[in-house]
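#struct-pred

JT: dropping the chains for the assembly here, can someone run the whole complex?
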Amino acid sequence: MRIGILGSGLMGAKLGTIFARVGHHVVFSYSHDQRKLDRLAQSAGHGARSGTPAEAAESADALLLAVHWSRVSDVLEKAGDVSGKVIVSCSLPMNADDTTLVVAHTSSGSETLAKKVPKARVVSAFSTVPSEVLFTVFSGRRSRKRPSLVYCGDDAGAKKTAARLIRDVGFEPVDAGPLRIARYTEPFTLLMAQLAYEGTRGPALAYRLEWRRERKA
Ligand SMILES: NC(=O)c1ccc[n+]([C@@H]2O[C@H](COP(=O)([O-])OP(=O)(O)OC[C@H]3O[C@@H](n4cnc5c(N)ncnc54)[C@H](OP(=O)(O)O)[C@@H]3O)[C@@H](O)[C@H]2O)c1
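RK: done, full complex below.
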């Protein structure tokens, strides 16, 4: 797959690197520092390259949106026409100092994003885990008990693409339903962040959902 990374920070750099390592064609974009993008592409290898957001979007089968909420409009404007594109978004609708969600309960960041780019096919994924766990999960991708990753969206084809990428990273994708379910997944991320960054066991935190067979008492 050709994957354009819009936002090459903690999430975009790691996910883009992993996507390149499993054989996808990756273009890293959107940083203040062109040399950082070049270095990132070089260290990811497998033909990864750096580019502008427009170049990342141009022939992409999927775009990873990984910018702060305050940069979403800017990066989308720079990406240009994203009609028909799959946009896998890990961006959360956080305020400037990342202390609270600015969209919640009656809508979600992902739904707000989908309204901004109504012709794109938005899937919400990857936001429920901290960046610190991504390489660890990737290393364990062949293990039998893989951690879960919830995702949601309204376009079946786009969700299939997202599920493939989730599997590529080493998670077991859990389809949580339509995009409006991001109203639940986005606040769940704040719980994950609390446990990862305020707990005592470090930030490399993932989760695993298990459905158990009901037993009669
Ligand atoms: N970090 C996590 O663990 C985590 C987990 C779940 C969800 N999220 C969400 O994922 C999204 C991305 O988070 P992140 O932690 O990866 O963010 P980040 O490290 O701050 O990365 C954002 C990227 O956007 C670039 N950028 C910002 N302003 C720019 C500008 N004016 N011009 C050009 N480039 C600009 C940054 O450039 P530089 O390269 O120059 O910094 C960086 O590459 C956020 O919405 C966040 O809430 C993050």
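JT: nice. Residues 182-198 form the longest helix (17 residues). The mean pLDDT is 97.
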